[in-house]
Design goal:
The chain folds into three domains: about 80 residues, no CATH class; about 160 residues, Ferritin, core subunit, four-helix bundle (Ferritin); about 40 residues, no CATH class. The chain contains ten helices and six strands; from the N terminus they run E-H-E-E-H-E-H-H-H-H-H-H-H-E-E-H. Strands 1-3 form a two-stranded antiparallel sheet. Strands 2-4 form a two-stranded antiparallel ribbon.
């Protein structure tokens, strides 16, 4: 008989991209957390997943030596790998000086509304409802890249806090109470929430939102760059900011394939007043009030019906049932 933890056998069935090899087992059949599994059943399961156990690491149920402490080795099967972590950031992260206050500001891009965790989760969730294979592939590519960005921000926070408890500035930051390292909150300590995720189920609406979200992330990095003199921080932040601009352009290009930025969301078509412009902010005289009346492509004659005095039109009598 071959003894394997029941839970780990279930994990083997779920994670087709992993080979689970028991190097030794000290537990006995009497332990309720273990169950017996025939060797042929395990062999069939491995064969179905093209998994082979190395002979020198076969389980030994009688090894009770100190070196025989049970351990599990997870070996990636490259042909079916879904996600993998490489201990190498997308871009070098080298912080020059300890700075707990700046580390707290960086939390905005770790667990804030426009941060990397929000972006990663948002694009990943949006991909499931996307019926355009090419755009879905793009969403997954960008979502996966955002995981790397999240790690880079986390590494920056970690480096900015090394030895920070010896700094007086440390006591005036969130870390003095929450502990060292990045937290899932923004720079003011507001906890991350899934309310920040926008996944409408309509790819046009999602792409338009994503363009705006990347603009917000770009501005956050822009402000962070202007608030540090550390060359290493500036270099890493500039890389992250540049990638936000790249993602924004990708989303705009994807929108172009669907009709451009003016593409309509949903399926119900508008029936009236699509190109009507109401001049509802009026009477500005430059040096008085809060501005002047201006015209532009958004209300130009020809494409738009410009309603200069909309009071009468908007005050039309509305009659309900039985009126």
């Amino acid at each position: 008989m071959h003894y394997c933890p029941a839970d780990d056998l279930g994990m083997v069935g779920l994670l087709d991209d992993l080979v689970v090899v028991a190097s030794s087992i000290t537990q006995t059949p009497e332990n309720p957390h273990w169950r017996a599994a025939p060797r042929d059943a395990i062999a069939e399961s491995r064969e179905a997943r093209r998994v082979v156990t190395r002979p020198e690491q076969t389980p030994n149920a009688h090894d009770r030596s100190e070196s025989g402490i049970s351990r599990w080795i997870l070996k990636p099967a490259r042909e079916s790998l879904m996600f993998a972590h490489r201990k190498k950031p997308l871009f070098p992260v080298k912080v020059g000086e300890v700075n707990p206050k700046f580390a707290q500001k960086l939390l905005e891009q770790f667990g804030g509304r426009s941060g990397e965790f929000t972006a990663m989760t948002e694009y990943f969730v949006q991909s499931f409802a996307c019926d355009k294979p090419a755009i879905r592939d793009m969403l997954l590519d960008i979502a996966t890249e955002e995981i790397g960005h999240l790690e880079m921000v986390g590494l920056m926070v970690e480096q900015l806090l090394r030895g920070a408890e010896r700094e007086s500035a440390y006591e005036n930051t969130l870390f003095s109470m929450m502990g060292k390292g990045p937290q899932f909150c923004d720079s003011l300590g507001n906890a991350w929430t899934s309310d920040w995720i926008r996944a409408s189920g309509d790819i046009v609406a999602d792409l338009k939102h994503n363009v705006s979200a990347e603009a917000g992330a770009k501005m956050a990095y822009d402000r962070l760059i202007r608030q540090t003199d550390d060359p290493g921080c500036k270099e890493t932040l500039n890389y992250l900011m540049t990638r936000e601009i790249s993602h924004q352009r990708m989303f705009l290009k994807a929108l172009d394939t669907l009709g451009g930025i003016t593409a309509m969301e949903g399926t119900v078509k508008p029936e009236a007043e699509l190109n009507t412009y109401y001049n509802l902010s009026r009477d500005g005289r430059g040096d008085q009030g809060i501005g002047v009346d201006e015209r532009g492509p958004w209300n130009a004659e020809g494409e738009w019906q410009f309603v200069d005095e909309p009071e009468e039109k908007l005050s039309a009598k509305v009659e309900g049932p039985g009126a």
